[in-house]
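Mods, move this if it's the wrong board.
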Amino acid sequence: MILIGALLSIAAATADSAAPDQVIRRVAATAQLAAQEYRIGVVDGRVVAQAEVDEARLFLEEAKRSAGGLPAEAAPPAVAALDTLLRLVAALAPPDTIATRVSVLSSGLAERFGVTLDELPRQPPRLARGAEIYQSSCASCHGAAGAGDGPMAAGLDPTPADLTGWKALSDQSPLDYFRRISIGVVGTAMPAFEHRLPADDRWAVALYSSLLRLPAPAGDPPPALTAFATTGRMSDVDLLAALGSSEAGRPEDLAKLASVRAIQAEPGEGGTAEVFARVRAQVDSTGALAAAGDPGATASALDAYITFEQVERPVRAQDPAIAAELEAEFAALRAGAATTPPDPAALDAVRARLHDGLTRAERTLGGRIGPLNLFFQSFVILLREGLEAILIVGALMTFLVKTGAGHRRRDINFGVFAAVVASLLTAVALETIFHLSRANQEVLEGFTMVLATVMLFYVSYWLLSKMEVVKWNHFVKSKVHDAVTSGSSFALAAAAFLAVYREGFETVLFYKALFLAGGGSAGAGPVIGGIVLGTLLLVVVYVGIHRFGVRLPLKPFFGVTSAFLYYMAFVFAGQGVAELQEGGLLPTTPVAWAPRVPALGIFPTVESLSVQAVLLLLLVAALVWTFVIEPRRLRA
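Not the wrong board. Structure tokens:
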């Protein structure tokens, strides 16, 4: 149970790492609001709206105050950047200069800490809930209709904003409203609702408030604009352009725009096409930013991959080859975006391959899977995800039998059972409680693999250390079953737990995606059939390992098992680093000479190869110590 709690606490800690994440988002959002206000207040070096300039300064001062709460290594440069922005505002610098510096600050923080700055809600906001919150929390100042004439407005200085003026607010998106509602406006009666309302309620009132400037909805929105994940970031001007309408704000155009704001599709109703469209746009944006030397290119590449991961599991469930191909290309995109100076030809080639792969992946998800294909894919998922685990568990079980410590098999059984339960609990928690982003799920998987690497290497070395002649004789004479101490037994159980848990919770989520792709209950039979056949084959593999291992002489068995566990530690090390890179926690530094063999844990990056090089050095050191230095020391 301790292991279950420990691994689930990693999920909780990853979710709760929102503390620094929230500070980063607050700094970025406040600075972005300052840039927007400043653009309204300053034109051609002249102040045309002093209130907006004052508000921009207040937002920057609030961002500077918040930046003091950043991690120690990031706080001083962020505060210095905001001081520079305050000086530029005082000097009436061009709005584009302010916007560019804010963008560099925000993207730099996002890239450094692997944070997605603007996370839209998992479900579309509910307008009815937004109206309810608006009337209870906002109408007293802004008025029932949003005209800034609420009963408390008369005594306020400055007066509450008029939310009904379309021309003044046409460049504002629901995301901009959400930022203001969350952060508040320093120096006014507008409080911060970040800790007063949950995020879903803030999104609901943000969407509702953005409709107060529009007439009643009329007409049906085009399918491409029915997902809030798209329209939530778009201003009215952006939406009018997407609708092919005039920016002048004709009543019929605004009514059509209101229909887009008011009618949002639930996830799954056209959402897949929207996700692929966003990924393509982000890939193109990455190329453009990199070509211009913009430091935001790396963050844009990470955003593209994180967006793709919204559909990655269904794609992988139906066609693992395409998913693996796209994963490799996204890694190449991130590496290319981080290269200084950029190679435009190489980036264009990666972009073309990504577009081709995304088209094939979208086509793969376009149709319902047949029963035979469902059965085969279900079988392959369990075999692919379970084979490594069953090999490790089988080797550990056979080791205990060979050493006469069969009674310790209960520890391995407990580790496996705990891992299965933890996998189910984690999968449920990720979907219902923590709502971890796919990037943070990658981080969780990466940390699990790193822990598994440590445990497998420890067990591998423990087995190796017993093979030196003097120690081997002592080991045998001391009754081998007594040599399996409680400490080493715990290590075996932990290794079994991590081997199963490593991919366990993701396997559960893969099956969920496959189940939905098969049409729910209609495809349940083939999916379950594939699970049953896959389980039977894994049992056959386990029995084969056990029978073959028992027939081996004890000392060669130690050597074979030690080598196998070391090999798995080597694989997990490379894969763990790759997961942490995909989650944005580690940088990606490509090397041209190394191959990419994910099945062996080999990836062409300095970070993953460095970790594996350390493991190789540790192996050499262990061999030299066990078979050269230690025997001489014992004979001396």
